[in-house]
Design a protein that fits this description.
The complex is a heterodimer of chains A (about 130) and B (about 160). With about 130 residues, chain A is an all-alpha fold. Chain A has four helices and no strands. Chain B contains five helices and no strands. In chain B, α2 crosses α4. Classes of the chains: A mainly alpha (about 130), B mainly alpha (about 160). Chain A: This is Succinate dehydrogenase, cytochrome b556 subunit. Chain A: It is found in: Membrane.
């Protein structure tokens, strides 16, 4: 590859990459989630047995990761809409990305205990 | 400046740049007209793809705004409030789907999220699958999985029976 032709975008490119990756991950989870919910039409036991998997420590941690992906995709999606429809959106896209990351960190900190409380209580008692 | 030698136009550079371009064409020797690259001509096929891509672009933004409310509300109820994931089970689902409000909420969320995600993955496939055959079959797989999942989820919401045994 000739020198100097590799595109290395900054905030704009990396937020686009993160939006893609989180979007694909969320979509694959959605397939699984509709299938597991469909088990309510089989029997209450089949459904409860499957939901028990969601309550194991590893999968509970993955739920926190799912919340992280969805929150980023939602907040950055609103930023994309602002870039497209707000007349000054493109000029402030960087500032909006740092706002997105700031709100994301606050919400992730707030969601830590509520989402993981099942595992935390199981592992550390009380 | 060789071009200026054959004409009577001024040969000094003006404020708009070199005089060469001024000297090449005049009223008697007009510049050739270049057709705009995307102009519709007699050769352009009548049946075009319309503005499908513009409509999907708009759909992604409109459905995205609605999904922010529906999905974040769903996460709040299922994973954050009232003990997190601990309380989720058949009885919890039965309690929520006893209300038409949450049935409509979940139905709308299912359809919008699946269509939003399917269109997103369509874009990803179009971007990275370079062979025509690969791209075609990946999209067929995507569409089949999407139709199946949307119909299954819709059926489950409409036929849910809390007294199933």
């Amino acid at each position: 590859m000739p020198a100097g032709t590799l595109y290395r975008g900054r905030e704009g490119m990396w937020s686009w990459v993160a939006h893609r990756v989180t979007g694909v991950l969320i979509f694959f989870f959605l397939f699984v989630h509709v299938l597991d919910t469909a088990l309510v039409r089989v029997s209450p036991e089949a459904y409860d047995d499957t939901v028990a998997i969601y309550k194991t420590p590893l999968v509970n941690l993955m739920e926190y990761g799912l919340v992280a992906a969805i929150l980023f995709h939602a907040l950055n999606g609103l930023r994309v809409i602002a870039v497209d429809f707000w007349s000054k959106g493109a000029r402030y896209q960087k500032q909006m990305l740092w706002t997105v990351m700031g709100v994301w960190i606050v919400l992730m900190a707030g969601a830590f205990y509520p989402v993981l409380q099942h595992t935390l209580r199981e592992l550390f008692g009380s | 400046m060789s071009t200026t030698e054959t004409t009577e136009s001024k040969t000094t550079d003006g404020p708009d740049g070199p005089a060469d371009s001024v000297a090449l064409y005049d009223v008697d020797h007009p510049a050739p007209v270049i057709e705009p690259p995307r102009k519709r001509t007699a050769k352009t096929p009548k049946a075009s793809r319309g503005n499908f891509e513009m409509q999907t672009w708009l759909f992604m933004r409109l459905s995205g705004i609605v999904l922010v409310v529906l999905v974040l509300g769903h996460l709040l109820i299922q994973l954050v409030l009232d003990g997190g994931v601990s309380k989720v089970g058949f009885a919890f689902v039965a309690g929520r789907w006893a209300s038409p409000f949450w049935q409509v909420w979940d139905l709308l969320m299912l359809w919008l999220a699946m269509l939003h995600g399917a269109n997103g993955l369509r874009t990803v496939i179009n971007d990275y699958a370079e062979r025509d055959n690969t791209r075609f079959w990946l999209k067929m797989l995507l569409y089949a999985a999407t139709v199946f999942t949307v119909l299954l989820g819709t059926l489950v919401i409409f036929t849910f029976d809390p007294n199933i045994r």
